[in-house]
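pls design
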């Protein structure tokens, strides 16, 4: 197993555009919005992958570094998020950290297991 890291930072109101966030939508592949289900990131073009990891420690450190600017807005301590990620990622469970930012913005940092037990998509790097 390995993990793909993804990020999204945008106008939180755009998340209501659920249609283009579903893989059944003709706009799904080109939409910059994050998918409704975490594992559906794997159906997006490989160019959307921010980083790929074989080491869980490096994957979680990357998540921490990407999420650091938003951590001050999040009521959940980053140390708690990290502990949970260490329990989930090696077991094949995707991890997503997200929170609202000032001005109605929303940030997501996602680490997606590949292969994924929740969706049948092949690894984006092997298509």
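designed seq:
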């Amino acid at each position: 197993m390995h993990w793909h890291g993804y990020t999204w930072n945008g106008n939180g109101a755009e998340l209501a555009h659920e249609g283009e966030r579903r893989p059944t939508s003709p706009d799904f592949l080109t939409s910059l919005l994050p998918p409704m289900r975490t594992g559906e990131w794997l159906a997006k073009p490989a160019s959307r992958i921010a980083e790929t990891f074989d080491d869980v420690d490096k994957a979680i450190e990357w998540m921490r570094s990407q999420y650091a600017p938003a951590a001050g807005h999040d009521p959940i301590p980053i140390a708690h998020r990290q502990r949970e990620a260490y329990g989930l990622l090696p077991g094949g469970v995707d991890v997503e950290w997200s929170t609202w930012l000032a001005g109605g913005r929303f940030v997501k940092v996602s680490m997606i297991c590949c292969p994924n037990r929740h969706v049948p998509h092949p690894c984006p790097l092997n298509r």
